[in-house]
Amino acid sequence: MRTAYSNLIDGWFAAGEEQPARACVDLAVQQGVWEQPLQRDRDHVDGLTAQPLPDPGQFWFVHHLERHFAEISAEIRAVLGGVDDPVRPTVEDDWLLRAGSWQQAYLFREGEWQEDVCARLPVTQAILAEIPEMTTLSPGVILLSRLAPGTHIMPHCGSTNAVLRVHLPIIPAEGASIRVGTETSTWEEGRCLVFDDSFEHEVWHRGEEDRVVLIMDVLHPGVDAAHRAALLANRPTVQQRVTAFLRDRGLAEVRVVDGRLQCTADGSTAHKVGRYLDVLGVPGVRVSADGSWRPFRAGVGD
Predict the structure, then answer these.
(1) How many CA atoms lie within 13 A of 205 on its CB side?
(2) pLDDT the model gives residue 242
(3) Which among 121, 126, 161, 181 has the fewest CB atoms less than 10 Å away?
(4) Among candidates 162, 171, 209, which has minimal Cα distance to 46?
(5) How far is residue 281's CA from residue 279's CA, in Å, rounded to a whole number?
(6) Cβ proximity of 161 and 200 under 8 Å
(7) CATH superfamily ID and name for 56-235
(8) How would you label 237-273 residue by residue, b for 16+ Cβ within 10 Å and e otherwise?
């Protein structure tokens, strides 16, 4: 139920339709799907303290990162914009973009260091490797994130309240801000920001230079040993994430043919779509970016 509601809410937000998205959120809360309208994780662990922006000072690794900030920042700044710049346009999260450009480079994911990126940032990797909460004990990722001026990342929620997200701003960029729940914050160079991304969050960049942040995931300190072991054992691979993505959207197969993406619906989705087309009496329809649609007529191509 949470997944179905999440997909619907994300779809409304992605279309820029905030009013129906909020109405859908309210309905889900009324039905007991979530307790809070602004905390909508799919995999919820009961009993964890819920704070949109926890105090960074309670985590030892925050002091470790800030103590080594000069080394981390110097190395990252040295590669940005050069031939060794590893940051590329996001693929997995591009659907969250309402405007602008969002680029990423993963240093750690699926429990493994990403050697092609780490080879360009050995000092940063060595410092991060001293923090088991972000590596061997983390079910999440470590990545560089770069936002161009004019970027707007739509409201969205992370998948679980069992993971907190840590930002170490390399280039905070004046004019960039993040809302987590009802609280809005900005980044300060060299000072960590910690937030619970199971709360709805949204990012704007109204400044004039790129915002660059090192992002790291850690387990919520209230997660018990059993949940920790389960999360670490079930870290999804790329293949598993792709499979879940396709299943959530009712797709059985995707492929590129002559430069165009072709998608095949799964059995249930194909049956539903077929019934809709029968009711409409058309062989096909096309939906435009503005939400309007037009039918294809028999014998008439696009």
Answers:
(1) 25
(2) 77
(3) 126
(4) 162
(5) 5
(6) no
(7) B-lactam Antibiotic, Isopenicillin N Synthase; Chain (2.60.120.330)
(8) eeeeeeeeebeeebeeeeeeeeeeeeeebeeeeeeee
Residue 48 has a pLDDT of: 96
Taking phi over 0 as left and psi of -120 to 50 as alpha, with beta for the rest, 98 belongs to alpha
Tokens of 265: 């619906």
Q: Where are the domains of the chain?
A: 1-37, 56-235, 250-296
Q: Phi, psi (5° rounding) for residue 148?
A: -85, 155
Structure confidence at residue 236 (pLDDT): 66
Q: Helix, strand or coil for residue 197?
A: coil
Strand order from edge to edge, sheet including 176-180: 97-99, 152-156, 201-205, 176-180, 183-185
Rounded Cα distance, 144 and 128, in Å: 13
Please state the three-class secondary structure of 126-192 as a single string.
Answer: HHHCCCHHHCCCCCCCEEEEEECCCCEEEEECCCECCEEEEEEEEECCCCEEEEECCEEECCECCEC
Q: What was the pLDDT predicted at 275?
A: 83
Kindly state the tokens that stand for 143: 């990545």
What does pLDDT average to in each consecutive run of 10 residues of the chain (302 residues)?
Answer: 93 92 97 97 94 97 98 98 92 86 96 96 98 94 97 96 98 97 98 98 97 98 91 75 78 88 88 83 80 70 49
